Amino acid sequence: MGLVYNIEIIKNTVKILMTYTTPFCPWGPQLNDEVTNKLKDTLGVKKVEIEITFDPPYKMPEELRVMMGI
Questions:
Q1: pTM across the whole model
Q2: At 16, which CATH number?
Q3: Which of 16, 33, 55, 57 counts the most CB atoms within 10 A of its CB?
Q4: Which range marks the domain in which residue 64 is found?
């Protein structure tokens, strides 16, 4: 969906720079938890740092718009 802008891996820490579709996204905390848990449970990552940014504002990728028929 184009929400992840950057992933940086330093030793056992994964740093993720991402956004939500809107600053008022009701699923934001759940999304953070799911990403963190998946990285820790599946890949054995020790520490996950997620930074949320709204610069630039989210814009749905054209490919996704086509897939969704929007």
A1: 0.82
A2: 3.30.300.130
A3: 16
A4: 4-68
Both structure tokens of 50: 């997620």
> For position 34, what pLDDT does the model report?
95
In tens, the pLDDT along 31-63 reads 999 999 999 998 889 999 999 999 988 888 888
Alpha-carbon distance of 44 to 14, in angstroms, equals 11
Backbone angles phi, psi at 19, to 5 degrees: -135, 175
CA distance 28 to 54: 13
Mean pLDDT to the nearest integer, 3-7: 95
Q: Which residues contact 7 (CB under 8 A, 6 or more apart)?
A: 14, 15, 16, 17
